[in-house]
Design brief:
This protein is of the alpha/beta class and about 450 residues long. The protein contains 18 helices and 15 strands. The strands form three sheets. The chain has a seven-stranded parallel beta sheet with strand order 3-2-1-4-5-6-7, with helices on both faces.
């Protein structure tokens, strides 16, 4: 019987002209999982390879994923919880886990047989359980991509209780036994090897080629699309940052500095640090004519978004304006490439992962101010490619220093050499060098 099944699989591959199939599993909104989309794009670029990308529906994936004939997207609605279970955390969690196990395992068992299953963790529960079971039943090889440790994220909201201890046991137990493991930092690789008996390959996040500096024309078109306010109504075809002159877009000399931050609005990012820094900056710029006005644009979705939006509305600052937005996948790199400074408030729950938003910003040639935590120096080098701060006062001082000669931006340009070195290593080359060999063994 097994020989007949194997013969059937070989015949199917000959008929469809491919020799490898990989399933990529994300227990989350696929459109908000850029690293797993990049994995999928890279896998689909391998000769005669088909990829099944599986996850929740919601945000739109990049066009390189949507329009690739070698990629099949399988999505289920985000898990809902009936009212009968919603009142109790334990019942709510059990229902959600059962929904995920049934929904994703059904897809994994009904799609064509895959040679490899690549999964993202966290969430580790029930992802790793589903993955091991599916690989056993489909006789496939499991590859785990460790982004962080899930129990440390749960600890932020649940404390160090029984739920966290059970989660950590499941994560540690089912994190073993994979064919291969990727991780996002060298510090995580050492932690996995020394305390989890898991041996992996460091696959740093690197920006794809579409993260680059925007031209003034591209920036102008984006600002017009976003319908940002102008300083005055007497300049036709102008945005707050750009204007048209003789048929060409140019930067306005009276433009504010554009600061951008991307966030998932979760507990591991304390946005009050940035708001407090901007309050202090507003007072200092009011007394100093050489400091520019600031426009802060924050992208992303998440549970604390409404709370911080309400905080922004109460500030009533004179020289700082703020806005939140959700961008189409194609517009996010353009915004980063049109900005002056990027801000990262990501504080790793474990101390072993790095903020992907900084990778995106560096890819667009954007200097970054990032809140410090262990292993951040694997990405942000203080005073070389950005700034590292620990408090709102430090962040305010860094903004004052970096913007003191705006719009000439000589101080910001001091970071360009180190950022350009980072830009030399892009996702595709990095993936082919460090990840592709895993899928040939």
């Amino acid at each position: 019987a097994r020989q007949r099944v194997r013969h059937s699989h070989r015949l199917e591959r000959l008929q469809e002209d491919y020799h490898m199939r990989v399933a990529v599993l994300v227990l989350g909104d696929v459109g908000r999982s850029p690293r797993m989309q990049y994995h999928t794009m890279s896998l689909a670029s391998l000769p005669k390879t088909k990829v099944d990308l599986i996850g929740y529906s919601g945000s739109e994936c990049r066009p390189e994923v949507r329009n690739n004939t070698n990629i099949t997207l399988h999505q289920i609605p985000a898990s809902y919880v009936p009212a009968i279970f919603a009142w109790n955390f334990l019942f709510r969690s059990l229902f959600k886990v059962a929904y995920q196990i049934f929904g994703f395992l059904w897809i994994l068992m009904t799609i064509p047989r895959f040679d490899y299953l690549l999964v993202q963790t966290p969430p580790a529960v029930p992802t790793l359980v589903i993955a091991h079971l599916a690989c056993f039943l489909r006789r496939s090889k499991l590859v785990i991509d460790w982004h962080n440790f899930g129990y440390t994220i749960l600890e932020l909201t649940a404390g160090n209780g029984m739920a966290v201890r059970v989660y950590r046991w499941i994560e540690k137990t089912f994190g073993k036994g994979a064919h291969a493991n990727f991780c996002v930092t060298n510090a995580m690789k050492e932690e996995l090897a020394s305390h989890w008996d898991v041996h992996g390959t460091v696959l740093y996040d690197r920006p794809p080629d579409f993260f680059k500096r925007s031209t003034v024309n591209e920036a102008h078109q984006l600002f017009q699309k976003l319908k940002l306010p102008t300083f005055s109504d007497d300049i036709p075809n102008a945005s707050v940052f750009t204007q048209m002159r003789s048929g060409n877009a140019e930067l306005r000399s009276d433009r504010p500095a554009l600061i951008v931050s991307s966030t998932s609005w979760t507990a591991d990012e304390d946005f009050s640090i940035l708001l407090d820094a901007l309050k202090e900056y507003d007072m200092e710029s009011d007394a100093s004519s050489h400091l520019p006005r600031i426009m802060l644009l924050v992208t992303g979705k998440g549970p604390l978004k409404e709370y911080y939006e309400n905080q922004m509305k109460t500030l009533n600052l004179k020289n700082v304006t703020m806005g939140t937005l959700w961008l189409e996948p194609e517009d996010y790199p353009k915004l980063l490439g049109s900005s002056d400074i990027g801000i990262s408030l990501h504080k790793s729950s474990s101390g072993f992962d790095l903020p992907m938003k900084v990778v995106d910003m560096f890819g667009c040639g954007l200097p970054v101010c990032a809140v410090g935590f262990p292993c951040l120096d694997e990405l942000v080098k203080h005073d070389r490619n950005g700034k590292v701060f620990g408090s709102s006062l430090e962040l305010k001082d860094q903004l004052v220093d970096l913007l003191s000669d705006f719009p000439r931006k000589n101080k910001l340009r001091e970071f360009e050499r180190e950022i350009s070195k980072f830009q030399n290593s892009r996702w595709s080359e990095n993936w082919m060098r460090n990840a592709a060999p895993v899928f040939s063994t």
